[in-house]
Specification:
Layout lengths: L2 E3 L6 E3 L1 E4 H4 L7 H13 L4 E3 L8 H10 L8 E6 L14 H15 L4 E6 L8 H14 L2 E7 L3 H14 L6 E3 L8 H11 L5 E5 L20 H4 L1 H7 L2 H17 L3 H10 L4 E6 L4 H8 L8 H11 L2
Parallel strand pairs: 3-4, 3-10, 4-5, 5-6, 6-7, 7-8, 8-9, 9-10
Antiparallel strand pairs: 1-2
């Protein structure tokens, strides 16, 4: 497993990480299989486990925490998130100081840990000033409940505002942003996020690096009955189109020549970008973890990257 610094922080995260959105809390995967995925991840060298309070309305944190507690805490990098409504209460949502302070204690209890390594603001909050959110995150770090904080799916100008506020007041700077990024969803990150984060020591922990499975090639000949795109219409509508199908098929000869799968090629492509600290993967079976982990050791040559760019830009 390759490890990378989280931005310019001293903490290192596995280049391949595992997310809890698919595995836990929402009934997508049987609990014993989800446990096997996490245990295989840890045994394979993954140290970064990403969650959010909204996944299963807290159930993902509970279930992941129950699995992770068997391992020495210092060997784990655990992240979770705050923003989405957790109940019908008017204040049980957003990035106000009140909601952040109440949410962190609930997440710590569910995860059975004394601190969170990375606390993400799960979207920008239009009802709360970025200054209030930055101040709250700084205080959580000073209290020892959080080690590093970051943003998720924020716009570049919002990340910049948060960074500048923290720098002005001497508060703890954001160290990571979690955006969607893949071969078939790249423009936003490359044009508006990386120009802000690269030079400011903010590392990206990207999600959906396989385009919800599209980049693995499993949809070359249509949508299988047991697939995610068959179950989740929004995902199918986002990724399944003639252009993407053509591009994914065209990537197969490149992967074959390298002796790897298209999924591994897609992960290695994300990791070619030095502004990316980790790619967050989802897995429903332990063997998927084993395949994904191998991507951290794949180095794509300039010639291969040029070939890939030709396909993606066609």
């Amino acid at each position: 497993m390759q490890f990378r610094r989280l931005g310019d922080s001293g903490m290192k995260v596995s280049a391949i990480s595992i997310g809890g959105w698919i595995n836990f809390g929402e009934g997508k995967v049987a609990e014993d299989n989800a446990r096997a995925v996490v245990e295989t991840s840890y045994a394979s060298g993954i140290n970064f486990f990403d969650l959010a309070d909204i996944y299963g309305k807290g159930e993902a944190e509970k279930q992941m925490g129950a699995v992770l507690k068997q391992y020495p805490r210092h060997t784990l990098v655990i992240s979770t998130k705050v923003f989405w409504p957790m109940s019908d209460d008017v204040n049980d949502r957003g990035l106000s100081r009140k909601h952040i302070f109440e949410s962190i204690d609930k997440s710590l209890k569910r995860l059975q840990t004394d601190y969170i390594d990375i606390y993400f603001c799960h979207r920008a909050d239009p009802d709360t000033t970025i200054m209030e959110t930055c101040h709250a995150m700084n205080d959580l770090i000073n209290m020892g409940k959080v080690l590093y904080w970051g943003t998720s799916e924020w716009e570049g100008h919002q990340i910049l505002e948060a960074y500048d506020i923290c720098r002005q007041y001497g508060w703890h700077l954001p160290k990571t942003e979690q955006p969607q990024y893949s071969m078939i969803y790249r423009e936003r990150v490359e044009k508006t996020i990386l120009p802000v984060t690269r030079s400011r020591g903010i590392g990206l922990a990207v999600f959906s690096p396989l385009g919800q499975g599209m980049l693995t090639g499993k949809y070359d000949e249509g949508i299988p009955a047991d697939s995610r795109f068959n179950r989740e219409e929004w995902a199918k509508n986002r990724f399944v189109n003639d252009a993407n199908i053509r591009k994914v098929k065209a990537l197969k000869p490149i992967a074959d020549e390298l002796g790897i799968t298209r999924g591994q090629l897609a992960l290695a492509w994300c990791l070619r970008e030095n502004g990316v600290s980790s790619v967050i993967t989802g897995a429903t079976r332990p063997e998927q973890v084993a395949e994904n982990v191998k991507a951290s050791e794949i180095k794509l040559s300039d010639d291969v990257i040029t070939q890939i760019e030709g396909i993606l830009n066609s």
